[in-house]
Structures are given as C-alpha cells and as structure tokens.
Amino acid sequence: MFCNQCEQVSKGGGCTKIGTCGKKPDVAALQDLLIYSLKGLSLYAVEGRKAGIADAETDEFSVSALFSTLTNVNFDAEKFASLIQESVGLREKLREQVKAAGGQTGFADEAASFTPGETIEEMVKQGEAVTIMPNEVDADISSLGQTTLYGLKGIAAYAYHAQVLGHKDEAVYTYVYEALASMLRKDLSMEEWVAIVLKCGEVNLKVMELLDAANTGRYGHPVPTEVPLGAKKGKAILVSGHDLNDLEDILKQSEGKGINVYTHGEMLPTHAYPELKKYSHFYGHYGTAWQNQHKEFAEFPGAVIMTTNCLKKPHDSYRENIFTCGLVGWPGVTHINDHDYTPAIERTLALPGFPEDLPGRTVMTGFARNAVMGVADKVIDGVKSGAIRHFFLVAGCDGAKPGRNYYTEFVEKVPEDCVVMTLACGKFRFFDREMGDIGGIPRLLDIGQCNDAYSAIQIALALSKAFGVGVNELPLSMVLSWYEQKAVSILLTLLYLGIKDIRLGPTLPSFLTPNVLDFLVKNYDIKPITTPDEDLAAILNKEAVGA
Ligand code: SF4
Ligand code: SF3
C-alpha cells in the first residue's frame, strides 16, 4: 500500500505497511481501485455532459464514493468492494446513455472498461496494480495531481452533506468529473495542473456555500449558545461526526424516551442551530476531538453514533456501544441503515446512563457569519478605537501528534487586546479557556465545524469590505492546522481567494514536492508554524511596522 493523504502519514512520506489511522493494505488497495473506477466513470460523465447527458444517481454516488475514501471515514473492505461494483455498474449505464446520445465512448484507457474481480481478494490485487498518481514520471505533476485528488475528497465531503439536504450544484459535479478524468492524462503541463488545483479551491468555495445554504436553510442561522460540559442524570446517547441531518433524526427518534442527547467532537456547534436546539433533550457536549475517542467513548455510559469522520478503531471495551451510519464503517461494528436508529436507542436504554448530575463548565458556540455580522458595528468600532488590535483565525483539524500543543500555547499567548476566531476540531486544544471579552465581543469566537469554513471566509470578506481594504491588509492572521482532506480543500480555497501569509502546521503535507512548496511560498507566502512566541512576534511586529 501507499497512502500519503493525511498529516498522520508514516515517516518517509507514506504509509506503506499499515496506515497510522488503522487502514489496512487490503482496504487501501480497494480505495485505490475505487478511485480508479471513478476516473473511468468520469471519462463518460465528461463526454456525457457535452452530449447533454447527466445522471443524478451517478452524480450523488460519485461524491459519496469519494467521501468514503477520506481519512477516518470507512475501514470496511466489503463496503469498498460493493462501491467498486456499483461504480462500474453506473459507468456502464452512463456509457450506454452517452452512446445513445451520439457521444464518444471509445476510450483507450483501461479505467474506462475494466471489470472488477468477483471476490474481494481479486479486487485487492487489481487495486494493488493501479496507481492514484496522474504521472509517475514527473514528481511535481504527480504532487499537483495528488493535491487535486485530496482537495476533491474535501469537496466530495461538503457536496455529500449538501446533497443529503437536497442541495446540489451541477458545476460541482462537472468539476469533480473533469478533475478525475484529468488524472488519466499524461500530457498536461505543470501550468495546466496549477490551474486545475486552483480551480479546486474555487469549486470548494462554491460547494461550501452550498452546504452553508443547506444547513442554515434547514436548521436556521446559528445563534450564540451556551453549552454545558457536565452531564444530566439519566440515559445518554452520544453523537459524533459532522452530519446535522443524522443528528436531527437521532433527536426525533430519541425524543420522549428519557434519553439526553450529547454531542462529541465536531458536533459541538450544532447546539447553536435553532431547529436543533429546540429539542429539550438535546443537552450538552461530552469529550473533545477525535483522537481521544478510546478514553472518552469507553467512559461514556450510553451508545455512541459516528455520523462521519473521524472514526478510530473501536476498542473492545465499547465495541457493543458504538454504531456507524451513512458512509462511515468499521468491520463488525453495527451499521445503522435507512436512518433507523432503533439499535442505538435500544442499546442506550440498556446501558446505565449517568447515575447523577455531573456539574461542569459551559462553553459558548454559534458565532457563525450571521451572528458575527450582527455585531459588525461593535467589531468595527473596536478596531477603529484600538480596543481590538488583531484577529487570529486559529482553525483546522486536531490530531494525535505532540507538535499540536503549539495551538494551545499560541491561543494562551495571544495578547489581551486580540480576538481569536476558531473552527473545526482543532479548537478542542483551547475551547474551554476563559478568555473574557473586549467591549462585549468575546475574545474566543467558535464559528463552527470544519464544514463551516465558508462562514469564516464570509466574516473576513465582510470585514475587508467594511474597512475598504483587501483581506490581506486586514489585522487578521490565519494560523491553521490540518489533518485530513477537507483541510486541503479549504487551504486551496484560501489560495484561490489570494489569501497570503497563512501559517500551517503541525507539519507540511508530505505530498508537496520542494518545487510545489516553493511555488506556494513565492506566490502565497505560506509558511510552516515555528513557535508560538516567534510567530506571534512576527505577526504583531509586522503589523506594527506596517501601521
Ligand atoms: Fe496513513 Fe493517513 Fe493514509 Fe491513514 S489516511 S494510511 S494515516 S496517510
Ligand atoms: Fe476534525 Fe476529523 Fe479535520 Fe472536522 S473530525 S476537522 S480531523
């Protein structure tokens, strides 16, 4: 196997024996074969669009299949074998449709015509023989191709969440197919690949906007909300991942059963949505980020439901209590089908729950774009009067590597006249810090999940409009942490928007070659994090010099 798509990659630039995430070589090979089959399918989808053919089932399937290969989503070989079969079935259906419409169907590439093996073992062998790289000869082109593929997985995650709520955009599917089909070509130049990569950022902005519209359209705009970190006596169910629709179903189906619903990880900001917070048994938040599951899930006295990433290999101590749904999967773990959460609810009722009230602190969430723009005047006055000196967006994924303490220390050292905005699961490094406020504006603003990066971009754009300067001229610095591929697509969006001087950590992606990195540094001044003291001094001194 060879996988280098996340930050947790083994030393040497790729996981080759087993993934640090727990992905086994057979699953890695099946994921590669699935991507390969999607590339073949994309040839017909691109050709089909020229002939006026688009197939909604294929579109929804393609982004779901891509999302299933994102880090920490699915580890089940059987699931990937069935997705490969389905992909080839849809490819053949599309081929017939395109042919009937007079489009080209005679593709020489084997991805367009291969037949999957009949057994998982045969498919694994086929997967071992294919490559995910667009051009194995030129390392820089290969690097740009991988960046595109990983960005596509991020786009697919957002598109999946949006389409679940009935929001779709033809331009997103079109780009996904075009980019996947490009990966079968050997003739594209470095410049052409740079354009494909930046287009990935552009399309990701579009799909994040689509998801924002889907979430706020269905559940309302988040409002600042205080969330308890303690527990209430009684039965308890824990919901992790990112999917609001799954959470809504769980809230509906557990209502009136004496169960309190708790969020875990990236579900924390869902407490702020009016159409979710209206449920009286939607109680509080339990635990921190994904990498702490083994301890936190083992201690939780009820069922745990994983709606999306990040799933870690379940320990035996809670294997009976954990359930997966949607695209998430682990071999042997009970999967919820058709949104019927009865097995998890029954398991919760059989478990002890919390024996008594556990008092705890509270945290605030819900500072998404609407809430922040609602107090824009206060924010602008604060900056103009000098009360607010600088904004930091400290955002992105959490993970297990020791260097991630940087983000905790960074936030703790941010001067008192500065505001920290945050989103995604990296916030759990500092989310419960008491940071006070500046003239009524909290110094720590939780914008939401990684799925809400669009909100942060809108806040930055609104500030730049209000001050009449570009985003790069604002007293705003981005200090980002990455782990999986949604972070790759968000980074590409920031580059597409021309945002410079981003600090990225805890390490830089191993799939970037020195030349590609050099391109990013020269054009976007992107830089690795150093130490909190050094980075803070560099940011704030630069501002003082420029003032
Ligand atoms: Fe390794 Fe990350 Fe790939 Fe898992 S997803 S195999 S940890 S690079
Ligand atoms: Fe986290 Fe997995 Fe990226 Fe949603 S839950 S940000 S890592």
Q: What is the structure about, briefly put?
A:
The chain has 547 residues and is α/β, with parallel strands linked by helices.
Strand content: 5-15%
| The number of domains | 3
Distance between the termini: 52 Å
Report the uncertain regions.
none
Q: Nearest-angstrom radius of gyration?
A: 23 Å
Cross-sheet strand order for the largest sheet: 4-3-2-5-6-7
Average pLDDT, all residues: 96
Can you identify the CATH class of the largest domain? Mainly Alpha
Question: Can you lay out the helices and strands and say which pair or pack?
Answer:
Elements: H1 25-50, H2 56-68, H3 77-100, H4 120-129, H5 139-164, H6 170-182, H7 190-219, E1 225-228, E2 235-240, H8 244-254, E3 259-263, H9 274-277, E4 282-285, H10 293-299, E5 304-306, E6 322-325, E7 334-336, H11 342-350, E8 362-365, H12 369-374, H13 376-385, E9 390-396, H14 405-413, E10 418-423, E11 437-438, E12 441-442, E13 444-448, H15 453-467, E14 476-481, H16 485-496, E15 503-505, H17 514-524, E16 527-528, H18 532-546
Parallel strand pairs: 2-3, 2-5, 3-4, 5-6, 6-7, 9-10, 9-14, 10-13, 14-15, 15-16
Antiparallel strand pairs: 1-8, 11-12
Helix pairs in contact: 1-3, 1-4, 1-6, 2-3, 2-5, 5-6, 5-7, 5-16, 6-7, 7-16
